[in-house]
């Protein structure tokens, strides 16, 4: 049967309204929906569909299934792996979930909140705070990323050390399956042993198994005191020793432990010259730490200072600055965020998002630096990330004088060196950014045959027509 695009679009408009079906042959600019924010991936879309309810999503999915139209679920489109934009071939529509932005329930006594997939992360943080609670997921794109996207990629961010990533923050989901059925798993329970934990299938699946339309999430007591510190260390071994001491001393109050290499700090200083000097001496590595609790600020500061002084006495910390005001705290965390911005401004870097057992990180980095320098003379590794949970952003910037586009042609060769070493140490080539289009083909090399087979079996069982985000995660 011949596909009639205009008739199909007319049916879509009847389901969600004329103004919520955006098409390329009208005057709407679809570039924000069909291209990722890095400009690396882009594909044509038959339309961008903007449903406002689960029932509308259900109707659109059934309409798409009947005509064999593929659906690309999309939240804030802030991902780094091309999972939320169309592929370059095929009949596809973007299902943009930003209009699904309601709070369905805020249960303070149960410490839970149920929101729809299009709810903005920062708004959720603010909603929780207004109720005297904390939603701890925090990352650079929090002002525009949406909860559905955070779930689809199993987002991590700054406070995984204490609270876990998105997978640990979810109690229940509502999901529209590829056949249009609604799977209601919105249970606000911390204990439920009634069979398979189906929600976990969809978290981190990047929209390939179902479309998350709502989620019930955990909330926590809102800290009344926070303190941050910035320290310099000579080696990664010393950094891990500091982590051991801080966790032993601070316990659950210790919530973030970030690593910044000296070249990364110098790059920030280059592009953000107003960055103040924080320590009296330069060090090979820097640590940004945060602790928080529900007690008195001065007591928390005293505990943090005592733990830092113990590290100084051990010789693992060479120099340290403890923030004494909100303004100083903001300076420290702005520096961390500016590493990403400085890399964007510098251009020409090949990004990596790897995870390893914390104990193996020194061996990994110590092996990578000389190997990359030998393979690509003058290369500039920019290393930073969430050391507390073993996640490094090991980005490799072009040698000085090398054209950015020319450097990108070396991506496969650089990836092979870094990913081979990562997997050899029982690590992962994607810690928190997902797979999408970017790392899809590499899974075939780094996952076992049985892992890939099981993933394909699950995909085929739930989505036999391969209509949900085809070509993402799996090469299908």
Secondary structure elements and pairings:
Elements: H1 5-16, E1 21-22, H2 31-34, E2 47-49, H3 54-67, E3 70-74, E4 92-96, E5 103-107, E6 112-116, H4 121-130, E7 133-134, H5 147-152, H6 160-163, H7 166-169, E8 170-176, E9 182-185, H8 199-202, E10 211-218, E11 220-221, E12 225-233, H9 236-250, E13 254-261, H10 262-271, E14 285-293, H11 297-314, E15 319-322, H12 326-346, E16 349-350, E17 354-355, H13 361-375, E18 380-386, E19 391-397, H14 404-408, H15 411-424, H16 440-446, H17 449-462
Helix pairs in contact: 1-3, 9-11, 10-12, 13-15
Structure description:
The protein is an alpha+beta fold and 476 residues long. Among the domains are: 103-221, Uridine Diphospho-n-acetylenolpyruvylglucosamine Reductase, domain 3, CATH 3.30.465; 225-425, Alpha-Beta Plaits, CATH 3.30.70. The protein has helices spanning 5-16, 31-34, 54-67, 121-130, 147-152, 160-163, 166-169, 199-202, 236-250, 262-271, 297-314, 326-346, 361-375, 404-408, 411-424, 440-446, 449-462, and strands at residues 21-22, 47-49, 70-74, 92-96, 103-107, 112-116, 133-134, 170-176, 182-185, 211-218, 220-221, 225-233, 254-261, 285-293, 319-322, 349-350, 354-355, 380-386, 391-397. Strands 12, 13, 14, 15, 16, 17, 18 and 19 form an eight-stranded antiparallel beta sheet that branches. The longest helix has 21 residues, at 326-346. The two termini are 23 Å apart. Belongs to the FAD-binding oxidoreductase/transferase type 4 family. Pfam families: FAD-oxidase_C (PF02913), FAD_binding_4 (PF01565).
